Amino acid sequence: MSGNTFGVLFRVTTFGESHGKAIGAVVDGCPPNLDLSAADIQAELNRRKPESHNASTSRKEEDRVEILSGVFEGKTTGTPIALIIANRDAQSAAYEDLRDVFRPGHGDYTYFKKYGIRDHRGGGRASGRETAARVAAGAVARKLLAREGLDVLGYTVELGGVGVQIFSRETIAANRLLCPDPEAAKRMEQKLEEARSAGDSLGGIAEVRVTGCPAGLGEPVFDKIDADLAGALMGIGTVKGVEIGAGFHVSRMKGSECNDPIGPGGFKTNHAGGMLAGITTGQDIVIRAACKPIASIALEQETIDVQGNPKKIVVRGRHDACVIPRIVPVCEAMVCLVIADHLLRQKPRR
Ligand SMILES: Cc1cc2nc3c(=O)[nH]c(=O)nc-3n(C[C@H](O)[C@H](O)[C@H](O)COP(=O)(O)O)c2cc1C
C-alpha cells in the first residue's frame, strides 16, 4: 500500500493497523545532535491516548513508545529513527458483526473497493489508532522546532455547534476537551453527553497556532506551505475542511478589510494566517480543521454487505463520541511535521 510516507527532507513513514501487533513510524532526515528521549515522545502520546471520559473510546491502550534506532545517549544520530507502539487492547471479536458489512461514514466500503480484501477489525489502517504513529513522529519534529524557537499549540474552537467566545491559554490544559473557553467547555461537555446517551456522535473544529515561525518558509509553486499544511490536516480521518487565517470568511470581505496592512513594525493584522503566496510572513500561523462526527454510532443505519445486499447496522465496539479532543494533538503533530520539513528545505539557502 503506497501513500504512507510524508515529507521531502524530514520524511516520515507510518505502518501498522488498529488490530495488528503494533503501529509505528520511521522518521528519516532528522538532523543529528538533537536531544530526544522516549519520554519526550511519550508526553505527546499521552495527550492523544484514549481516556476514560465521555468524548473518547474506552479502548485502554498504554501507547508505550519504544525507540528502536537513530538515538544514542539521548541525542539523534542523523540515521532513521524507528518508533514502535504495541497494540495491547485490541478486541477483534467485538468487530465480528462487521465482517461482511460496511459502516456508513467509515472507510470500510472504499478500502474494500480499492484492495478487494476486508480487514473488518477496528478500521484497519483507516482507524484513528494510526494517528498515534503520527503523534510519535510529530514529537520528534517538535523537538527540532523548539530548538529553532517555534511553538505549536492546538485547541478546540467548536464542538457540536458550540463555539468559543474567549481565549484563555491556561484553560486549554485544564479541561479535557482542550478548550480555551471554560464556559464553552461546559456546554460542549453537555452536548457530548446528550449525543453519547442517544447513541449518536458529534463533530467539531480544532485550531493550531504556530508562534516564532520565521518569514520565508514555503516553496513556489506546488509546494506552498499553506497547501502542504492543508494537505497534512486533510490527511487525518474525519477532517473535511481546512481554513487558514480568516478562512472562508475572506470571500465575504472587501480587499480593504482583508489585506493585512504593513508598518515599519510589521503586519498590523493577520487575516492571512501567517502565509502569503505560500510563504510564511513571520506572523503566527493559524489553521483550523473541521471534523465530521464519528462514523461508528449505536443508532440503526442503512448499509449493504460485501455482496451488495441491503442490511441494517448498529455499530457496537468501543468508539469515540467525538474526535475532539483526541484529534488536537494529531493536528499539532501534522503541523510540526510540515514546518520541520520546510525549515530543513529553507536552511541551505540561508
Ligand atoms: C484520533 C482519532 C480517533 C478516531 N476514532 C474513531 C472511532 O472511535 N470510531 C470511528 O468510527 N472513527 C474514528 N475515527 C475516524 C475514522 O478514522 C475516519 O472517520 C475514517 O477513517 C473515515 O475517514 P474520513 O472520515 O476522513 O472520511 C477517528 C479518527 C481520529 C483522527
Q: Which ranges are low-confidence, i.e. pLDDT below 50, for 5 or more consecutive residues?
A: none
Radius of gyration: 21 Å
Number of helices: 8
Count the beta strands: 18
Widest beta sheet: strand line-up: 1-2-3-7-4
Ligands (ions, cofactors included): flavin mononucleotide
Backbone shape = globular
Biggest sheet record = 5 strands, antiparallel
Distance between the termini: 37 Å
SSE class: alpha+beta
Q: What is the average per-residue confidence, as pLDDT, rounded to a whole number?
A: 93
Proportion of helical residues: 25-40%
The fraction of residues assigned to DSSP E strands is: 15-25%
Write down the secondary-structure element order.
EEEHEEEEHHEEHHEHEHEEEEEEEH
Q: What topology does this entry show?
A:
Blueprint: E1 5-6, E2 11-15, E3 22-28, H1 38-48, E4 65-67, E5 71-72, E6 75-76, E7 81-86, H2 108-115, H3 131-147, E8 151-159, E9 162-163, H4 169-174, H5 182-197, E10 204-211, H6 225-234, E11 239-244, H7 255-258, E12 262-263, E13 266-267, E14 275-276, E15 279-280, E16 285-291, E17 301-304, E18 310-313, H8 327-346
Antiparallel strand pairs: 1-2, 2-3, 3-7, 4-7, 5-6, 8-9, 8-10, 10-16, 11-16, 12-13, 14-15, 17-18
List keywords for this structure.
globular; five-stranded antiparallel β-sheet; 8 helices; alpha+beta; 350 residues; binds flavin mononucleotide
Short description:
The protein has 350 residues and is of the alpha+beta class. Strand 2 and strand 3 form a beta hairpin.
Please characterize this protein's 3D structure:
- The protein has helices at about 40-50, 110-115, 130-145, 170-175, 180-195, 225-235, 255-260, 325-345, and strands spanning about 5, 10-15, 20-30, 65, 70, 75, 80-85, 150-160, 160-165, 205-210, 240-245, 260-265, 265, 275, 280, 285-290, 300-305, 310-315.
- With about 350 residues, it is an alpha+beta fold.
- It contains eight helices and 18 strands.
- The model has no long low-confidence stretch (mean pLDDT about 95).
- It has a five-stranded antiparallel β-sheet, covered by helices on one side. Strands 9-8-10-16-11 form a five-stranded antiparallel β-sheet. A two-stranded antiparallel sheet has the order 5-6.
- It binds flavin mononucleotide.
- Flavin mononucleotide binds near residues 106 and 123.
